[in-house]
Amino acid sequence: MQRVLAILSYDGTNFHGYQRQPVSRSVQGEIEKALRIIHKAEFWPSTSSGRTDAGVHGLNQPVHFDTPLSIPEDRWAVALNSILPNDMHVKSCQYVPSAFHARYDAVGKEYVYRMNTAVQPDVFKRNYVYHLPKNLDLSAMSEAAEYLLGTHNFTSLSSPKTDVIDKVRTIFRVNITRYENEWTFRFIGSGFLYQMVRILMGTIIQAGLGDIKPSDISQIIVSMDRTLAGPTAPGCGLYLAQVFYERDHLEKYIEEL
Amino acid sequence: MQRVLAILSYDGTNFHGYQRQPVSRSVQGEIEKALRIIHKAEFWPSTSSGRTDAGVHGLNQPVHFDTPLSIPEDRWAVALNSILPNDMHVKSCQYVPSAFHARYDAVGKEYVYRMNTAVQPDVFKRNYVYHLPKNLDLSAMSEAAEYLLGTHNFTSLSSPKTDVIDKVRTIFRVNITRYENEWTFRFIGSGFLYQMVRILMGTIIQAGLGDIKPSDISQIIVSMDRTLAGPTAPGCGLYLAQVFYERDHLEKYIEEL
User: One biological-process term from Gene Ontology (chains A, B) (predicted)?
Assistant: First the structure.
């Protein structure tokens, strides 16, 4: 058996999230269907770096699987793409050591959140950019983001619907840029809890609207009380941008951002 | 009764074209459903500048309708948008003289066709940009476009499936721009026949691929034989960009392009 690492992009609009489900259409379900066909098997498992919610998109989602087939490395993407639906695309595949693990070996992840504050909605962006026709205070949001940096217990800034017990994560960097009415928020951290980026966004937006003071964030974190944080921002604006497996690469990326 | 001119945008992906249909979802069907609700009537007709096919998008589609309601001009868009689905959006509404006609008064139209020639498909653009991973010759395509300019009988460059008898149209301008792998083709003409822009595109692409010589276009036009022209390019890349009702405005726009 050899282990293959595939880098996958997907438009999350028409998926009920990443994770395999008995009935609903999922990203993992489609990949494993393709793997089943290629391997002529009844079931062929895959392991991703993590899950995304319904409507959330993937730009570079790492997924690994094992195979007894000796397909040349560069033909794996062609084989998978010939079967996958057109809202998914394997960007590349490579053979990796069998000890490699798409989830456990991750040293960092980047999520991107896109928002548009134009008065008029853009029908072409409705599934890809959260439309919030409000005036937002960039400096208040940047200040709010500063309070999130570092290592904290993020219980109050993630969904209680999870089996994960250790809720300590490290946020290395939050980068906010604006071009006209289009805003891009980049979150780089050691890892993120269930719905954490969407709740971070909802809370940063509260600061941008003046509904909370940026410094309130310290108290929200310490409280470990989900009800004190902001609402969960819509999934359509969220993208899993990339997963880092090498600390050097992660540090260099953060430095250059 | 007063006549209202609405300017509409729509993502054509999930519509079976513009025109009202008995069962399938159409842009006109959704507008007239909203008008029915607003007027508390069983049927309320509307007239557009023209139709678009399944999958074709609208950036600024003019639509007129008559109403006995005295709703302030700037509230019409709000009222319609509160009912319309989120893949449609009324950008503006204004009262116009009752002699105004969205179709008959048009003096010109602009269509935009978007194409991407990157090797890898982009899952986020699949419904919005035609993906053709080939090398295209820009100068051959520009030369081909030159042969289309002016007044011609476009029988060979439109679909035979139409009741329209007069197939003479004037193309004022074809503008081709490229930014990296993304191509934009703008067609400005007096009007366009059924599937004409998609067949013009299919024929220009043939010239870009070297499958025909640009000068062959003269012969294709003269032949009045649809089978000599190129294939019908996919609807997903096509946008009705704008409709002109004033000759001055049209001429100024062409000059500045």
Answer: tRNA pseudouridine synthesis
Angstrom distance (rounded) from CA A173 to CA A183: 16
Domains of chain B: 2-96 (3.30.70.580), 108-256 (3.30.70.660)
Size of interface A-B (CB pairs under 8 A): 38
| Residue B119: how many other CB atoms lie within 10 Å | 8
CA distance, residue A227 to nearest chain B CA (Å): 30
Q: What is the mean pLDDT of residues A150-169?
A: 94
Please report the pLDDT score of residue B257 as a whole number.
87
Neighbours of A25 (CB within 10 A): 14
Instruction: Cite the active site residues of B.
Output: 53
Q: What is the pLDDT of residue A255?
A: 93
Are B64 and B22 in contact by the 8 Å Cβ rule? The answer is no
Q: Which of B86, B89, B126 sits opposite A120 (nearest CB)?
A: B89
Cα distance between residue A90 and residue B121, in whole Å? 10
Residue A106, C-beta contacts closer than 8 angstroms, at least 6 positions apart: A49, A50, A62, A191, A243, A244, A245
